[in-house]
Specification:
Layout (H helix, E strand, L loop, with lengths): L1 H11 L5 H15 L7 H9 L3 H7 L18 H16 L6 E5 L5 H9 L4 E6 L2 H13 L5 E5 L11 E7 L8 H11 E14 L4 E2 L8 H5 L5 E2 L13 E8 L1 H17 L1 H12 L4 H20 L6 E9 L1
Parallel strand pairs: 1-2, 1-4, 2-3, 4-5
Antiparallel strand pairs: 5-9, 6-7, 8-9
Helix pairs in contact: 4-11, 10-12, 11-12
Length: 321
């Protein structure tokens, strides 16, 4: 895995001067000509239509399927989930009474957390997965949360007449391509003075698509078809309708620890996980997919832990209308 990462850096680094930046500009131009998202059905198949029971065994108690936050006081994955949820709330400047739209809500970790902590707010969550919608609404009913609406929609066609005080998105923009169109749409969904918070994983300087060019591209083939690795600066080139207020960097080591915790949970819950995977993929494919998920979590840990978390990392941005 480390050899593959070193190879990626070598193949992308045309040079450290004009060549690298010109390639970056070419790819930025390509994003503006792309659909808002590609391969959305494949993304569902690879991640978001996998049974919730799998993630209940592997993720933490909040089912946060994204980078968590660790420090010296962290005692569990649940602590790390809670820390990042609180950090997200603070950096998004959330407050009770706001109308909040979450784009790409996953299994509802942030949606349900916001609904519980801001009972006077109305939370609207958007996912491309019908099973995620059913799961989140079921959790909301169990917890007595009446301020949650979940919409199933493809990011290419989602539209709403509602207006929001905040739009938040955690690890969804990596599945998008045309940020110019996306940011324009989001600006139209925000009230004047409204704000967008984005959490993405990224590389510190390189931007590249996940493509299937050979046998070594198994992550793109099985887990991230149509995905994009943005550069930390990518979103800064799409400020025609929203203006950057603040930006933060989260070391890749936090994601490495997150993925290692997921891996440990999968191994510890092996028997239960195999039951779920057998139901999802059939008895002939279950063991193969168990190993694929293990390799995926290992690859995430190695990627974000590379060079002490300084090459691939997580970035936070707050934009205002």
């Amino acid at each position: 895995m480390r050899r593959l990462m070193a190879g990626r850096l070598a193949s992308e680094a045309v040079d450290r001067g004009e060549g690298e930046f010109n390639e970056f500009r070419r790819r930025l131009a390509g994003l503006r000509e792309s659909p808002v998202a590609i391969e959305t059905a494949k993304a569902n198949e690879q991640h978001y239509e996998v049974p919730a029971a799998f993630f209940q065994h592997v993720l933490g108690p909040h089912l946060k399927y994204s980078c968590c936050q660790y420090d010296d006081t962290t005692r569990s994955l649940g602590d790390a989930e809670e820390a990042m949820l609180r950090l997200t709330s603070a950096r998004a400047e959330l407050a009770d009474g706001q109308r909040i739209l979450e784009l790409g809500c996953g299994w509802g970790s942030l949606t349900l957390w916001m609904a519980a902590h801001y009972p006077g707010s109305q939370i609207t969550a958007v996912s491309n997965s019908a099973s995620q919608r059913q799961f989140i609404l079921g959790q909301a009913r169990e917890r007595g949360l009446a301020n949650v609406e979940v919409i199933t929609a493809d990011a290419n066609v989602f539209a709403t007449d509602q207006r929001f005080d905040r739009v938040v998105s955690v690890e969804m923009f990596e599945h998008m391509r045309n940020y110019a169109t996306l940011m324009e749409r989001i600006a139209g969904w925000l009230e004047p003075g409204g704000k967008l918070f984005v959490h993405i994983f990224c590389h510190r300087s390189l931007m590249y698509p996940f493509t299937v060019d050979g046998d070594e591209d198994w992550m793109a083939r099985y887990f991230f078809t149509g995905g994009l690795m943005p550069a930390e600066s990518t979103l800064l080139y799409f400020q025609e309708h929203l203006t950057l207020e603040d930006q933060w960097r989260v070391s890749g080591t936090h994601y490495a620890r997150t993925a290692n915790d997921w891996l440990a949970n999968q191994d510890r819950e092996r028997d239960r996980v195999m039951v779920v995977l057998t139901e999802a993929y059939g008895p002939k494919e279950a063991a193969l997919w168990f190993q694929r998920w293990r390799m995926f979590f290992m690859a995430v840990a190695e990627l974000f832990g590379y060079a002490g978390g300084t090459e691939w990392l997580v970035a936070h941005y707050r934009f205002s209308r």
